Structure formats: structure tokens, C-alpha cells
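Write out the bound-state structure for iron/sulfur cluster.
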Amino acid sequence: MKNEETLLVIRRGMNFSQDGPGNRLVVHLQGCNLRCPWCANPESMPPEGIQLRTVPPRFSCAALPAADLAAECLAAKRLFFGGGGVTFTGGEPTLQFPALRTALTQCKAAGIHTAIETNGTHPRLPELFPWIDFLILDCKHYDDAAHRRWTGQGIETVSENLRAAAQDRSQLLVRIPLIHGVNASEDDAHGFARHLRALGADRHPLELLRYHEYGRDKWTQCGWDYTMTDGKVSDEAFCRFAQIMETAGISLTQS
Ligand code: SF4
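---
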């Protein structure tokens, strides 16, 4: 049963250096407030979860007390080598704000390195900064109308949170999912560079994630149309985008 102190978890497992440094327990939380048509985990969108045909029920969504999850992290602490720890991702982890805060505070109190990956839309995100060692913030577009068109929400709160995160002492990684026809042109690269500079986020590392279609089958299993038709970014366009970022003084990284 879900309440304010439980986390609805889609799945969790160990991953090396993909969503934060070192060896990490990556916890995917259920529910997302955006509707990106390229989403690789569409089953994470509904707040109540959705059963995929290819996933056995015992591996599906489960409600876990935040304190139990923190205890699980503590028990796994010896596995967190290379500066690892726990990463909360989604879906959108901040939708489960009170329980996420409890899990983060208890993990921090136990000396566990904490990270979250977020779409940046929660207005209270900065309240969590004291308990986040490594923040991964998605920046899907620099233009409000385009962000609204593609995800269902504008960028105002994302931008405020990115500005606040850029000033915070925590480590920040900005991620742009690069998608042809959405945000991957040369004009877009210049737009992102201006946007990141205006928010003070150009001093932090940036990761470019190229569009892929790993989620296509899952959209079908959810009973929804996969509407992306031409999202792949060519090598040439990717290199040009990266070059524009580097020329703007933004350092690129890859996990
Ligand atoms: S923010 Fe992430 S989880 Fe949410 S719909 Fe977009 S890609 Fe999917």
C-alpha cells in the first residue's frame, strides 16, 4: 500500500558508472509528469504502474517503505566501490517527494553517496539539494514553446532549478537527449549554449544522449502509439552539435 513514507519502485539493480560515479544501486521510481514521445521507459509514466507482457509480475512495481530502502542501501554499502552509492531515477523520482526525501536523508546519514536523475520540473527540487551528492538534470529544450510541445510542460521551473543547481555545491551533470527534428540542429546547439550560459550551468559537465528506439516495443505493450518516426541523429550532426558546445566552453562528458 502506497503512503507518504513509501516509494513505488518499478525496478532496482546495480549499475556501474551510468547514473552517477562508481558502482551504484539504481532505483527506478514509478510515475512521470512529462510525456516525452521518445521515452525509453513509457511504463514508468502512469502513477499507478503498468504491467508489461515481457516483465514477470514479481519484478513489477512494488511499494517499499523509504526506511527499508535506505536499510537495503546500507546493507549493500560494500558494493558501492569506486565512489558509488544509490541513484534515484524514474519515471520522475521527485513526484514521490516526501518518501524520496526520507530515503535520501537516511542514506546520507548512513554515509552513502546519493544521486538523483530528474527532469527538473518539481518546484521544491532545491529543498533536496542538501541530501544529494550528485544531481543529474535533464535539459530537453532551451525554448519554452518547444519544451511544452514535446513534453507537455514549459521550461520555467526546469530553468529555475537548473540555475539553483548550478550555484549549489553539489556535483551537477546536465543531460540533453539529442533528437533529430526536436533539438539537434546547429541552431539548437547555439540555443542550448546560450541557455546554459544564462543559467550559469555552462561551468558544469554536459552529457549528450543520442536518441534510440529501445522503448518502442514497450509503448506497444502499454497499448500506446509510438509516434517518433525520424529521431535518429547522424554522426555528422552529433559531432557538429558537440563541437558548438565545446567552442562555447562547455565540457562534454560520457557515462
Ligand atoms: S521525463 Fe523521462 S521518464 Fe518522463 S516521459 Fe520524459 S523521458 Fe520518460
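---
The two ends are 35 Å apart (CA to CA).
The chain has one domain: 6-253.
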